[in-house]
Amino acid sequence: MTTKNISAEAKDDITKEQLIHDFKVVVADAEALLKATAGQGGEAMSAVRDRVEESLATAKARMADAQEELMARTKAAAKATDEYVHVHPWQAIGVAASVGVVIGLLIGRR
After folding, report:
1. Of 14, 16, 26, 39, which shows the fewest CB atoms inside 10 Å?
2. Domain span at 14
3. Are 34 and 53 in contact (CB under 8 A)?
4. What is the number of structural domains in the chain?
5. Model's pTM, two decimal places?
6. Burial of 52 by CB count in 10 Å (0-12 exposed, 13-18 middle, 19+ buried)?
7. Half-sphere exposure of 7 (CA within 13 A, CB side)
């Protein structure tokens, strides 16, 4: 695994984490809406509410699976990085120093 691949995977993981968080907020809002409308409507509203509850349950299960996969990939990336740093410590120090210099230059321009 190269540093470039690890960086791309980390960026994907951040995006996935944000997606999971946003989806959890939507699910919580939908559940609150369902509870608020529980006493309203007739048979049609009850059927819609049942379908929404079923869809939410399915979505929550899928998001839990996605979250588990994300955690596994994050742990694998961290382990790969740790192993790389232990095998190639001077290269890791060089990369870290280079990144620090670039960030310092960018901050110094402001």
Report:
1. 39
2. 3-84
3. yes
4. 1
5. 0.51
6. middle
7. 4
**Cα–Cα dist 102/104, whole Å:** 5
Residue 107 lies in a domain: no
CA 10 to chain centre: 10
Three-state SS at 40: coil
> Would residue 103 count as lying in a domain?
no
Confirm whether 48 is domain-assigned: yes
Please check whether residue 23 is in contact with residue 59, taking contact to mean a CB–CB distance below 8 angstroms.
Answer: yes
Q: What is the tens place of the pLDDT at every residue in 30-85?
A: 777 777 777 777 776 777 777 777 887 888 888 888 888 888 988 999 999 899 89
For residues 84 and 103, what is the distance between their CA atoms, to the nearest angstrom? 23
Residue 78 included in any domain: yes
Distance CA 58, CA 64 (A): 10
